[in-house]
Amino acid sequence: MKRYKEYYVPIFFLILSVLGIIASKASLNFILGELYDRFVRNEIFLLALIFPIMSGMGINFSITIGAMAAQMSMLFVIDIGFTPKLGFIIVILLSTVLSIVFGNIIGNLLNKAKGKEMIASMVIGFLGTSLYQIIFMVAYGTIIKPFNKDILLTRGIGVKSMLDIGEFKDLFNNILSIKIGDVKESLVPVIIIIIMGIIVHLITKSKIGYRMNAVGEDMYLAEKVGIDVDKTRKIAIIISTILASLAQIMFIQNLGILNVYTGHLNLDIFASAALLAGGATFKKANIKNAFIGIFLFHTLFIVSPLVGQNIFKNPALGEYFRSFIAYGTIVFALMINLKNVERNT
């Protein structure tokens, strides 16, 4: 039975998803269309969590910093007024550079908080959000003079809470088009995600991936055999932050709207929950967990409002039911993982 314990959480989510689909009475086309959008918007976030877990740091809740790097880069491009194609490339390059800088800072901080990385990364995420909001609520329009004043609030200070980036959303239109459900979509984002998955897999099997695994298993033993533990952990966080920034670019591009102040909130929680739903633990995570988890968790997330509405005959209760199911299953996944950790110690 021990060899099947890693499948307990995915099986639980699979059962809930099947029951949810039946109870929701949702059409297959509707579910497939929603799953496409959620896969494109969220999958790379799950990939971003793998390397810190491999390195023994648990779930990296500071991936929100990477998402903020992407939002800052997108705001810069909108402010300057680059064309969508050139702007998209600049966003990727700029967010990558910012992510390397931020990831290096986060890595140094987490190296000083060994054994408490998950709590520390959560606090870092909150601190980063506060600084980010101060910059764009107060500094923009006062200290920072924008080129495009249309992005400012009517008082001339602070960026608008929501910006339309529909031109970026249309970038992949009519390129490798395919009908998913009732909607015509492009395969380009899916191909990008698959390529990113292959890159992540290759890194896990490379020399640095071996070092991350060694550090995750026993950092003191790894240090004795000549592995630079702090540097390895820092590299894991930098890669994680870069992937999170790329994930947020995919999210923004697919949505077609930039939520300046709230676009990065809770993405760490839902990415973590989806990865756990795929069978990952605080000590072990891989590509398989990321791809299984995204479909199981988000299928449940799609149908749960409809389930609540059908059972209670009240649309408002449907949203409460969604929150109950989502957070309830997160707690269940965490309990199972904590129980397994206790048994192994």
From TrEMBL:
Record localization: Cell membrane
Which residues, if any, are the signal sequence?
A: none
Cited InterPro entries: ABC_transp_permease
Principal localization? membrane
Report membrane topology: Multi-pass membrane protein
State any single GO MF term.
transmembrane transporter activity
Source taxon at top rank? Bacteria
Give me the segments passing through the membrane. Answer: 12-32, 44-66, 86-107, 119-143, 186-204, 235-257, 263-282, 289-308, 320-338
The cellular component terms of Gene Ontology attached to this UniProt record, alphabetical and capped at eight, are: plasma membrane
UniProt keyword annotations, A-Z: Cell membrane, Membrane, Sugar transport, Transmembrane, Transmembrane helix, Transport
PANTHER family this protein is in?
ABC TRANSPORTER PERMEASE PROTEIN YPHD-RELATED-RELATED (PTHR32196), SUGAR ABC TRANSPORTER PERMEASE PROTEIN (PTHR32196:SF15)
Protein's UniProt name: Simple sugar transport system permease protein
Species annotation: Keratinibaculum paraultunense
